[in-house]
Amino acid sequence: MSKAEYEKINLNENIPAFIWYIDNESYNIDYYSYISPHWHRSMELTLVTEGEINGRINGTPISVKKNEFVFVNSGDVHEFEKDKGKISSGVILIMSYDFIKNVYPNFDNVRLDIKKVGLKKDRLIEIFLDIKEYFLNPKELDYLKINSYLYEILYILFSNCISEEVTIQDERFKYRERQKEILTYINENYKEGLSLDYMAKKFYMSKEYFSRKFHQWFGVTYKVYLSNYRLNKAYENIIKTDENIKDISAIHGFSNVKSFINIFKEKYGMTPSKYRKYIKELKNDIKEDKK
After folding, report:
1. Record keywords: DNA-binding included (predicted)?
2. Which listed site, 153, 172, 205, 222, has its alpha carbon 20 to 30 Å from 263?
3. How many whole angstroms from its chain centre is CA 82?
4. What class does CATH assign to 17-165?
5. Domain boundaries in the chain?
6. How confident is the model over 30-49, as pLDDT tens digits?
7. SS (H, E, C) 211-225
8. Whole-angstrom distance between the N-terminal and C-terminal Cα of the chain?
């Protein structure tokens, strides 16, 4: 059985964290409207600065609005989706697991609840808005200030937001490990057939039980999840390359190009070829606006 592997996070230079500011323009060009379920050992904290962010964390639906935080504990399975036609933006901070573990050795055994931050919430918002400015207008020594912010954020979280201690005997832990194993296997083999029958047998479940648990854990059927995952992988080829649509379809595991085109059109409102043209025109318009 495939070992559950975490998503590896590329850190910013001189900073033990990944930092990004996403606005509506970024979503259109560089980001998918749907980010499929995934997990990583790092801790993820996002301040919503405009609109709202919807998604699921460990199967639980979330909807987070302006000046609120999306918080993802280490190891949590999470997914996000941006509603079509709605403006949203946010400051994303994903802190290195090794950095946190070094600062707080008991990190693996606690869960944090951002709702418990209380009066320190305003300070967190202030920090994140500063980080946004550093990201948009970087200067040579900014990394020193940002690193000081990382320590302050951890101090606030570990002083105010510890909700419980967890152990590997915890039933929820066992379920999360199974979820990660399934996601890891799909991530590594999504180009193959991966029928429902095959996956159920692979993970020693009946087809009915696998189907039911998958929907319970991830909020969609296995078929829809696999289709969305393949679509997300193909999306990058559509907007960043001139590869033939039929070839992209085959590379990413779709049964035929017609099926791929129909699924893409249902998600993005136009065929892959038209969408590629739309993105190129959008990029050109943005370049012209910045001149």
Report:
1. yes
2. 205
3. 12
4. mainly beta
5. 17-165, 190-281
6. 444 677 788 888 999 999 99
7. HHHHHHHHCCCHHHH
8. 53
